[in-house]
Amino acid sequence: MGISVPQIPGGRPCLSAEKSCLRRFANRYNALMADLIHVNAETPQPRRMDQVAAALHEGRVIAYPTDSSYGLGCAMGERGAIDRIRQIRGLGRDHFFTLVCRDLSEISRYAKVENASFRLLKAATPGAYTFILPASKEVPNWLAHPKRKTIGIRVPGHPVARAIVEALGEPFMSVTAQGQEDDDEALSEALDVRERMDRQVDLIVDAGATGVEPTTVVDLTGPMPRILRPGKGSAEALGIESSD
What we know:
Elements: H1 16-31, E1 35-38, H2 46-57, E2 62-65, E3 70-75, H3 79-89, E4 98-100, H4 104-110, H5 115-124, E5 129-134, E6 150-154, H6 159-168, E7 172-176, H7 190-197, E8 203-206, E9 216-219, E10 226-229
Parallel strand pairs: 1-8, 2-8, 4-6, 5-9
Antiparallel strand pairs: 2-3, 3-7, 4-7, 5-6, 9-10
Helix pairs in contact: 2-6
């Protein structure tokens, strides 16, 4: 049944009732969509970064740009949000989350760092690397790898990712934003994230396109550093070779 449109003097239809109905429909639809915040990729606006940090403190799941692709993030102590990200990505309990840190001193709080590893970290951060390190006592058992008691650590080079962790004032947990299949490509546009994950995440930080090449994963738990996954970060810059 159509909407009964009132008439105004002169016989012309009054569209206010129809517009009101459309506004109510749009409001209900938008309420189901993730919030979208547009930020400058090079100089992110502090007030908008504060909005993102507030969302993380509230236990919300965000999508945000990184050196490599878009990522999914949540606050470190929010187990419910971490479980939501596992569900979005179809991840098992043994899958690593990365701890996004501000700097070397923050890495040293959450991971055990030997002198040789410290020098390598200093040379490589910030940048497109993920480092596997022994977890310190500051990391809850349920956040560390259940068998090896290690943690993935990252100090991003992307200005927006860095601004988020600075505004938050503490590290946050992150994984790559991509589908549940192993061969799904990482998402590189905020609109792609919205199309694929819109009603599963709470907030999308749009700073334009990123790449899709993953970070280089470096294992620092053994006597010598070892590349577990080649990626965007240069292995040669660290003076080590890929295990391939």
